[in-house]
Structures are given as C-alpha cells and as structure tokens.
Amino acid sequence: MAFIVFNSFNTTSAMERIPVPVAFKQKKHSTFNPVAGSNYNLLDKALAAVINGRNFLIQHQQKDGHWVAELQGDTILESEFVLLRAFLGKENDEICQKCARYIQSQCRAEGGWSNFPGGPFDLSVSTKAYFALKLTGVSTQLPWMKLAREKILQAGGAENCNSFSRFYFALLGEYSYQNCPEVPPELLLLPSWFPVSIYSMSSWTRTILVPLSIFSAIKPSIKLPQEKGIRELFIADPWQAKWPSAPSKELFSWRNFFLLADLAIKKIAPRIPFLRNYAVSKAAHWMREHFQYSDGVGAIFPPMIYTVVALKCLGVQESSPEMQWAMKQLLDLMIEENGSIRLQPCVSPVWDT
Q1: Residue 343 belongs to a domain with what CATH number?
Q2: Domain range for residue 155?
Q3: What is the pLDDT of residues 193-206, one digit of tens each?
Q4: Which of the two residues, 134 and 11, has the higher pLDDT score?
C-alpha cells in the first residue's frame, strides 16, 4: 500500500538523497541528511524513514538470514543470577563480580533500583539488587547502599517483596518457607480438564510453575554467614509466621480462598509423603522432557534459573552434563561489555525475524 502511495507522487528528490543498498541494484548514496531550510515535504521524510529503516535491517541481518537484537531486562536478572550462584557457593566468582558492576551502574540517583530505565523505586528489584551486591562484597556503608536500604525500609521492608523474591530469600536462609506460597507439584497429577490443571494455564506460566514446584516442595536452604545476610532489610522477624499475602477484608473472596488452600496444603502434604514424592517425580519427568530440542525450559530466564535449583534439589551434581547444560542456557543470555555483564530475559531471533 505504501509503495502505491509513493508511486503516485514525485519522490525522485528524496530517493536521490537516500542510501539504497547494492542488493537492490540501485546506486548507494550518503545517509539521508537534507540541508537545513531545503524544500522537502512530509512524504519525502516518510520515504526516507522507510528506506533508512530498510537499510538498517539489511546491515544487521545475520549471515544465515535471521535477525536478533538485545532484549533488555531489569537488574532482577543479574541479581537473581548472583543469588543462584550464592546458593551454589560461587558468589565470589568473576561472573558475579561483573554482574555486580552492572547492577551498581543501574542504581537510581534517588536511591534503590527500578524495573525500567528512569522508572520509580521498586521494592523487590531493589532488595534483590542490594542482596546481590552485599553477597559479592560491596560495602553496605557506601552512601548509595545506605540510601537504598533506607528506601527499602520506607517501602515496608524485605518481607513485603513479591513471592518470587521471598523464595530466593528462603533459598539463602534469610526467610521462612512457611511464609512463602505453596507451589504444589501435585498439580501435575490433575487431569487436563480440571480447572486448575497446569494445562489450563498459559505455556509460559506452566514452564515457571513446574520447576518452581520442585523448589517449593523440597525447600532447599543454605546458611549464609551473618555478614552476608540481609536481616537489616526486614522490619518484622522474617521467621515469624504470617500469611503469604494479607487476607482481604471480605470474608468470602478468591484471595482468602487461596490462602486457606495454601494453609491446607502446608498441613496435609507432609502427612502424605508418598504422594508428594510421586508428584515431585512427575514434575522432574515433565521438566526433563522439556529439555529436549530447547534452549532451556521455556527458553526464558525465570524457568531456566528455577531449573538449576530444581536439579540441585533432585541431587544432580554440578559436574553432570545435565547441570552443565542448564547452566549454559543461562550463560548464553549474557552480554559482556566494558567489564560488566548484563543478562537478557531470553533471545528473540524468531520474534525479530
């Protein structure tokens, strides 16, 4: 449609000023840059934008024909990677130090971190960033770390972070799993027609839920040295029993229903160990099936990092081909630049192409 419109007007002047690639068998000119005050109309500008855009795409096409560009994420990615490495006892390695440099570079002047450039303070993003930096040896007495700590406490403390964050705190021995929501692997035993079957969920949700259910069922935890913990970010005792989220004021509500279901699962599941063990084995089988012909479960960061935790829960050794494969998928998301490392949530050649 655009070319029909363009062909009905005189676009010769614009075409003469626009670079056209040799692949199109047209003369290649310098970049479109009209002299200030020259007489060209809106159509010239539009055509210039179209052709310059086309040229840009041709220049960035990969040798095998596909396109892929960086998919930007927030510092949750680098922070969670450092927290994972701490669980594996490797928070002091070079990769974590480079991730820490990137996290530091994204700190807001007003204190803490945001989940998008120039955005407002975010409690969960900031708490994980602070924790990751502390684990890698960054002093909590630095002015910007003090400011981040103040902002976290003003926002209600680490106990008010989202559920995904609290799982990491529990993983590293800084929070009680009893205060995290249950993600029961028994969901995999439900028939596909059941309302809360995993197949009633989106594919993306499913790939997160299955490895996280193994994590949730086995509840792995390590003991950090006190100087590496984040007790200073909690206002209330992180080990004091509390609901995973605050009950709603209405007695009959979906939130209260799920909170009661969560409590029931926590009470009942330990009493039926054979069922829990069978459900974990089904979750492990499902997860491993989805290793096949993939760049990680779901090919996106959250299930990929939960996969590593899940494999560790299942007793898989770090030197095993399976664990090495799972770690490689995370390493492949990294971009190293100027002595720092940032991670993409996934790679996007299909989307971009």
Answers
A1: 1.50.10.20
A2: 76-352
A3: 998 899 999 999 99
A4: 134
Q: How far is the C-alpha of 163 from the C-alpha of 154, rounded, in Å?
A: 19
Query: How many angstroms separate the CA atoms of 346 and 298, rounded?
Result: 9
Specify whether 207 is located in the same domain as 172.
Answer: yes
Do residues 113 and 50 share a domain? no
What separation in angstroms does the CA of 193 have from each of 185, 198, 211, 289? 17, 10, 22, 21
Residues 27 and 163 in one domain: no
Residues 96 and 43 in one domain: no
**67 part of a folded domain:** no
Average pLDDT rounded to a whole number, residues 173-182: 95
Residues 39 and 145 occupy one common structural domain: no
Q: Rounded CA gap, 348 and 98, in Å? A: 24
- Give me the number of domains the chain comprises: 2
69 within some domain: no
pLDDT in tens, 231-287: 999 999 999 878 777 777 787 777 778 788 878 888 899 899 999 999 999 999 999
Within a domain: 196: yes
219 and 275 share one domain: yes
CA distance 349 to 88: 31
| Backbone dihedral region for residue 339 (phi beyond 0: left; psi -120 to 50: alpha; all else: beta) | left
Q: Which residue type, as a one-letter code, is found at position 96?
A: C
Q: Which residues contact 296 (CB under 8 A, 6 or more apart)?
A: 303, 304, 307, 326, 329, 330
d(CA 152, CA 219): 26
Per-residue model confidence as pLDDT tens digits over 93-129: 999 999 999 999 999 999 999 999 999 999 999 999 9
d(CA 163, CA 186): 20
Contact 233, 139 (CB under 8 A): no
Tell me the helices (H) and strands (E) count for the chain, helix number first: 14, 2
